[in-house]
Design brief:
2 copies of one chain form a homodimer.
Chain A lengths: L5 H15 L10 H8 L3 H13 L3 E4 L2 E4 L21 H11 L6 E3 L1 H8 L3 H12 L4 E3 L5 E3 L4 H23 L6 H18 L1 H4 L3 H13 L5 H20 L4 H20 L3 H28 L1
Antiparallel strand pairs in A: 1-2, 3-5, 4-5
Helix pairs in contact in A: 1-3, 2-3, 4-11, 7-13, 8-10, 8-12, 10-11, 11-13, 12-13
The first copy, chain A, binds a DNA duplex (30 and 30 nucleotides) through helix 3 and helix 5.
DNA sequence: CAATTGTTTTTTATAATAATGTACAAATAC
DNA sequence: GTATTTGTACATTATTATAAAAAACAATTG
């Protein structure tokens, strides 16, 4: 019932690897340098040194530290099974919600989620606390958490917010200098859109990826940590919903290609107002699609 | 080393209070109803009933529960000191950051914050996890948390984001129906602005409150959970910075009053484009003020 | 006196656990 | 019979105690 010593174990192996680069009988750097190398505190380094001394790998007396022999593979220490990386928890969580169509107002069990995602309970709680800032989940009065999205209101507000952000981005693109990388990206996107348009009958399902690339290119012009954070969540949600709503997919995608090209046309003409209008039309279509995909699920 | 029984204690006193409303020898409602009344699970209710039986307050056999005597004040159970309410933690935390001018990249000690704000450590961690979504804090590699804001970049991005949201709000106001409450609010705000303008020499410090009211009125037209969440943080930060940056306060506020009135003028004329332009000018001024207030602190 | 080590104090991460919630079976009342 | 209610078993949560790790400080050493 205390914190794990994984840090010590990983640091130990790291220091061992470092010592392998040293010749035998070489002096070992100061505790502070070793701490720097392993990215841990001196406390951990001293534990490492103590063990190395115990194993006869080094001699250690005050500041005299000598490597007695080259470390062997059996000197390494076992590192306990590291739980799943929690950096992509957001992706996996949203994926789970959308893939299994978890309905609005579902109680979320931290214990269960912790098992399915292989992440410690407190990490999950922190993650949920973060999501609650987006209004995606909330605490329940009797304890625990609840999934709030994806109601109709949620989808409408999300779409509206996306619209606000994306129209802003479009305006920025229109004002971007000629040497900005976005122009090359848009030129390539235009070619890819035209290619897909020509092969739409067979390759229409390829559009999802193209759509993501297109919106990413537009939004990458805006350098803003707040907007970027939101865009991540927004694009994920839209992306998945498009992928799974298969009704009239071919027709929908063909129409979206035209809308994208219209936006590119206006942007390359540096006509900010026309670009905003074109983007607005496209985003309205997106909103309708998202809403109809929700209705679909509700009925199913 | 397990959870506290505060819930039981509070429920117990609540049930006791409920029983006081019953005549003596009255039958007591089902466990489920009592659970509903106290807002807890049946498990807690059964603990309450067990204690009440033990004290001779009730008789309890299967579903026959009778009140034997009226509860007295000494029957109540002690509730341990409840820690500070955590609902206003955000307000108090930002207040602390801004009031003490905590510089960017300061390590935050959960233990210390927990003491100063009288909030449990895990609640604080959840709170910080939420703030990290706004890019205000982040986890440090060696554990713990770090305050990221308020660098120049942060202020610029925050201002820009505010601008995006607020211009959107202004557009919405311009399109609001004539019977929307925002029009009455704006009419009143115009009167208050004119009144303050007349007394600016003495009452200029009153502007801070007026500013907050003005922006709140504009933004209240947009009903969007994502935008609302951000607005809370944004307005708090701007509000405090204005309050504490005393350089040329009178002149600054007089200018801002004119800018506000210009926005109101354009809105009441239902001229969306003019309103956007006026708002843009005002927000640019705000941004400059926020940045100069930061520079001030850096030098001080 | 600058760099390093020795020592102490503080903080953090986390597993253990009692409190609480929840689900379901059994019993009761209507 | 069926709708409530209770009894019971099980799952989940909140919270604490605590070892691990970091940080602060004092004492050495070259």
């Amino acid at each position: 019932m205390a914190r794990s010593d994984t840090r010590y174990r990983e640091a130990y192996n790291q220091i061992l690897a470092y010592c392998e680069t040293l010749p035998t009988a070489a002096p070992i750097p100061s505790e502070t340098s070793l701490a720097e190398i392993a990215g841990v505190s001196r406390t951990v380094i001293r534990r490492c040194l103590a063990r190395m001394e115990e194993l006869g790998l080094i001699s250690w007396q005050g500041r005299d530290k000598l490597l007695l022999r080259a470390p062997r593979s059996e000197d390494r220490i076992a590192v306990p099974d590291t739980p799943q990386d929690k950096s992509d928890l957001e992706q996996r969580f949203l994926d789970w919600v959308l893939r299994f169509d978890v309905p609005a107002n579902t109680p979320l069990s931290v214990a269960e989620l912790s098992r399915t995602f292989d992440v410690a309970q407190h990490d999950l709680k922190e993650f949920l606390a973060g999501l609650s800032r987006f209004g995606l989940v909330s605490r329940r009065p009797q304890g625990g958490w609840m999934l709030l999205g994806f109601t109709k209101d949620f989808a409408i507000e999300l779409s509206d917010f996306r619209c606000v952000l994306e129209l802003n981005a479009v305006t920025h693109v229109a004002e971007a200098p000629v040497d900005h990388p976005v122009w090359a990206a848009l030129a390539q996107l235009r070619r890819d859109h035209l290619a897909l348009k020509a092969a739409i009958d067979t390759d229409f399902h390829e559009f999802s990826k193209l759509d993501e690339r297109f919106h990413l290119a537009i939004n990458s012009v805006v350098k803003n940590r707040f907007i970027a954070e939101f865009q991540k969540v927004i694009s994920l949600i839209f992306h998945y919903h498009y992928m799974w709503d298969k009704t009239e997919e071919k027709h929908r995608n063909a129409a979206a290609i035209e809308e994208h090209i219209a936006i590119i046309d206006a942007l390359e003409a540096r006509d900010a107002e026309a670009a905003r209008v074109a983007a607005q039309r496209h985003l309205r279509t997106s909103k309708t699609t998202l809403l109809s995909s929700l209705r679909h699920h509700d009925l199913g």
